[in-house]
Amino acid sequence: ADLSRVFRSARVGVVSPMWDEPFCLVAAEMLASGTPVAAFDRGGLAEFVRPDVGALARPGDTHSLADAVRRAAAIDPSTCTEFSRRHLSSLAMVDGYEAVYEQAARRHGRSDDAALAESRATA
Asked: Could you tell me the pTM of the whole model?
């Protein structure tokens, strides 16, 4: 709750990794709190920091990061919260896993409801 309060008080969250982080949890937490993200385009950030919720900068280029901060500051915080709910929440994760299980069941010729229920029960 304290971290979310800090994020909500910021106009933009700046994320400047110097390594290729597979998933940037702090950026996801910022978006969930309604804080647009300005970040170096490294690792997995490009997978979810899109122009409607943030701005990416050339890695290591501080002038590009400053421009990304200006662009991100113009983003409506409610867009970030809604994006997070739809794409980064635990509910979205479960929906994604279920889709993978359904595809696997279909690939193995088991597309009936019983096979899907079995795959969900083992998750």
From this structure: 0.78
